[in-house]
Amino acid sequence: xxxxxxxxxxxxxxxxxxxxxxxxxxxxxxxxxxxxxxxxxxxxxxxxxxxxxxxxxxxxxxxxxxxxxxxxxxxxxxxxxxxxxxxxxxxxxxxxxxxxxxxxxxxxxxxxxxxxxxxxxxxxxxxxxxxxxxxxxxxxxxxxxxxxxxxxxxxxxxxxxxxxxxxxxxxxxxxxxxxxxxxxxxxxxxxxxxxxxxxxxxxxxxxxxxxxxxxxxxxxxxxxxxxxxxxxxxxxxxxxxxxxxxxxxxxxxxxxxxxxxxxxxxxxxxxxxxxxxxxxxxxxxxxxxxxxxxxxxxxxxxxxxxxxxxxxxxxxxxxxxxxxxxxxxxxxxxxxxxxxxxxxxxxxxxxxxxxxxxxxxxxxxxxxxxxxxxxxxxxxxxxxxxxxxxxxxxxxxxxxxxxxxxxxxxxxxxxxxxxxxxxxxxxxxxxxxxxxxxxxxxxxxxxxxxxxxxxxxxxxxxxxxxxxxxxxxxxxxxxxxxxxxxxxxxxxxxxxxxxxxxxxxxxxxxxxxxxxxxxxxxxxxxxxxxxxxxxxxxxxxxxxxxxxxxxxxxxxxx
Length: 558
Known about the structure:
Elements lengths: L2 E5 L5 E5 L5 E4 L6 E2 L10 E5 L5 E5 L6 E3 L2 E2 L3 E4 L4 E4 L2 E6 L15 H6 L3 H21 L11 H18 L10 H13 L4 H6 L3 E8 L2 E6 L2 E4 L7 H12 L12 E5 L5 E5 L9 E5 L8 H7 L4 H12 L4 E5 L5 H9 L8 E5 L11 E5 L13 H8 L6 E4 L6 H9 L7 E5 L3 H13 L7 H11 L2 E7 L5 E13 L2 E15 L5 E7 L7 H6 L13 E2 L12
Helix pairs in contact: 2-3, 2-4, 3-4, 10-11, 12-13
């Protein structure tokens, strides 16, 4: 069977078999090959194989044309074996030989090319899904149906019945090797859900999903990144899934606004970026959050920290110490913030402020605020800073800012210094010292011309504890230090570590070996707790080494 080799703008190669029927190429999904881009027409070009093994190319009066070399194709011409033509930014080479013999024609050594290949069986399944999906649109016209009038179960049941009816009508055309139930599920996932991501989102062992392009999906499982065998039909489907995610929260993505942050219904964090910024295709990253948020016992069983550290952090939150959780991307900051927030007493009023709502607080008296991006005219944005200022008028006992990354840091510090003790936030930094430096930089972003000394005094007066997190080389996440900010010495911050994690080596399987260490430093506010008669077990500050727990344990009762 003859085939074509499609070279994407980024150099990736796909091989597609040509059947005896005309093979259509264009932007519409009903084409055999759906390509995206401003230079691609809805119906751009058709390849017509003939019985003698040759192939004719017919340009369908495309606006931007089809080219062989520098010559534009007019009407219909015969293609030679190995001849290449261009459609927008794509190069397509026609081969008269069988697809099975094609491996020798692709230069070896390119992981990108290997990853991009689609087998004839996969291509057959893709065509079937497209055909069934188009039949489904005609049957139900999902785009005109008011889905809000039906429950998700009713919609899926009705749509499933329609898909089964369509499949039954083309039963004789479906190869036996294709699983009918799997085909039906794939169509339903594409029509009503997030396509191939549905199975990944349902897998509790997957922490993160990374879509680099339609055919390159990676997952993080237990701290390790591996490639998934899932793939989308094309880039058009990826963009549709992105739009389906962001539509319920009133956000948009297009060429004028090609980046967006959003969340799924379960709170999972979503970031998407498309052309012209994403050169390899629409890119989607999903940081999954458990439907049942992690609790402190879960962190103990994971070895993220030990019981003594957890007990100390519980004291800090309950007795209203201002805490910053610092760490790199994917180090578990938001998960830890959610756990620490659970220590806040139920009687207190909590106002949480986030760019994309992720926190799941179990207390009853909680007000959750979410920043608003600009509308299509670029107006109406309400950033986190405005929400922090407004939160001060809402009589909060605690203010929780999901992440400080701009001028809101100044307002957060002022809130901590004016009666809102026990507030919490996260910040991107690689150490507790870096966290203080970054906080100082963020305050400057507020546009206030404050002297450096004044900013540092504000930070010193506001922040009590810095909890540093990290993702180690084996994929595990640890609280690597709990540090107290004790004041200023001249223009320099004074700090002392209360607990640290010390790495001592690696096991044969690459797992990190280490231990949590109690340094023996007693926080300066321990005397304050004592004077107020608060029940604090001071043995938690004694310099003893405790290995990370290997089994699930509960915190000691206070």
